[in-house]
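Tokens as discussed.
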């Protein structure tokens, strides 16, 4: 798959912007704060329904506007697909596919993207939420219907937690909160599906992770990944080991037993303490946890290997071909050896988009089709093709201009 054309309206610092992209490497060069990463973020949103920089959609809408529009023409072999999403500052987002109203969670079926960014170091060094986000965004790309499952789980979690807080305020004991049972059933059903999907993902990533780490680091440090599950009695979010409960039985049985065992503590704290929202993806090299033990170079190698393994997994499973690789300001963070290794590995993908503040940071295998970004203005240096523009009518055919999008944005999902 490749992104042939990207069009933005009121997204981040862009009132309107158009960017034409090509097969193979594309380099976006500009000083920090000019809007390079905003372009990458827009493409990534179409594939993951989320941002790698913020946890909510509102910051992606330009200041003073109520919604932003991201529109892209994608190429799958001989087929072209126009996808677009309206990001609303408040309320649900809206989407269209080839001009027809669609559910937003259908977008990842068409957009396949893997992002490498400096924030990836937080996957291995940050708190558990960073690793859960990494896993769930990959789950959505791998199985788009998981977007709905995860959204439903988060809704049930909010309602159940609100009930716990209300019970705490009223001094209700665990046995006096029978209404919690209904929410327990929903939490277990949805949460177990997420846990099963995450466990399969970890298993399927193990082989590609081992190969990618050796390619990046030039050494075999036996990288491993596995999930620490709160349904097994501990609390990975707070560093508690799986040691409190008998862990025999299916996930669903363990989930229910853990909820029953922690009900009093949940009411006392007004929190839901069991479920995939409390789990952690444990990463190891040389049989030691990466977090707290790995060197800076090893941590970067693990982070890059996770992204490469994700790309290889999507590449193997998708009939649409390679995912688009986006390397967002990554090369500035790497030593010369890792730069060359990463460039050699990724240059064979169908399309690679590289952003950099310093053009000299980009290794030769990826240095092609250079585009300059300055203060939200996109200038294309290729003399033989039409220039990309800022503030002009786009060329996506039926998509129309941003003013038209503001008048009749994508239909509700």
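Sequence:
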């Amino acid at each position: 798959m490749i992104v042939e054309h990207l069009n933005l309206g009121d997204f981040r610092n862009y009132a309107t912007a158009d960017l034409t992209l090509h097969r193979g490497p594309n380099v976006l060069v500009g000083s920090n704060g000019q809007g390079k990463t905003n372009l990458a973020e827009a493409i990534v949103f179409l594939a993951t329904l989320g941002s790698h920089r913020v946890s909510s959609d509102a910051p992606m809408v330009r200041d003073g506007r109520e919604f932003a529009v991201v529109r892209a023409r994608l190429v799958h072999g001989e087929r072209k697909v126009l996808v677009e999403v309206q990001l609303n500052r408040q309320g649900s987002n809206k989407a269209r596919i080839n001009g027809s109203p669609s559910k937003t969670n259908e977008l990842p079926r068409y957009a396949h993207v893997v992002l490498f960014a400096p924030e990836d170091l937080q996957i291995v060094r940050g708190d558990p939420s960073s690793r859960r986000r990494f896993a769930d965004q990959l789950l959505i790309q791998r199985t788009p219907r998981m977007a709905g499952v995860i959204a439903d789980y988060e809704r049930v979690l909010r309602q159940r937690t609100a009930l716990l807080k209300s019970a705490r305020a009223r001094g209700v004991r665990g046995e006096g909160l029978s209404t919690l049972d209904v929410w327990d059933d929903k939490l277990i059903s949805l949460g177990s599906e997420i846990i099963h999907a995450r466990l399969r993902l970890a298993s399927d990533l193990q082989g590609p992770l081992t190969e990618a780490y050796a390619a990046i680091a030039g050494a075999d440090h036996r990288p491993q990944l596995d999930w620490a599950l709160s349904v097994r009695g501990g609390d990975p979010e707070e560093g508690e080991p799986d040691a409190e409960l008998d862990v025999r039985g299916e996930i669903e049985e363990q989930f229910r037993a853990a909820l029953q065992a922690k009900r009093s503590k949940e009411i006392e704290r007004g929190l839901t303490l069991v479920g995939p929202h409390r789990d952690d993806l444990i990463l190891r090299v040389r049989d030691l946890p990466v977090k707290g033990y790995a060197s800076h170079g090893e941590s970067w190698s693990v982070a890059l290997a996770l992204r490469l393994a994700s790309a290889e997994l999507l590449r193997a499973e998708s009939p649409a071909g390679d995912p688009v690789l986006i390397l967002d300001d990554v090369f500035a963070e790497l030593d010369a050896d890792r730069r060359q290794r990463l460039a050699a590995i990724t240059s064979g993908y169908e399309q690679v988009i590289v952003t950099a503040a310093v053009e000299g940071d980009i290794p030769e295998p990826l240095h092609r089709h250079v585009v300059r970004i300055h203060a939200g203005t996109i200038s294309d240096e290729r003399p033989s093709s039409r220039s990309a523009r800022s503030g002009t009518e786009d060329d996506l055919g039926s998509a129309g201009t941003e003013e038209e999008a503001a008048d009749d944005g994508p239909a509700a999902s």
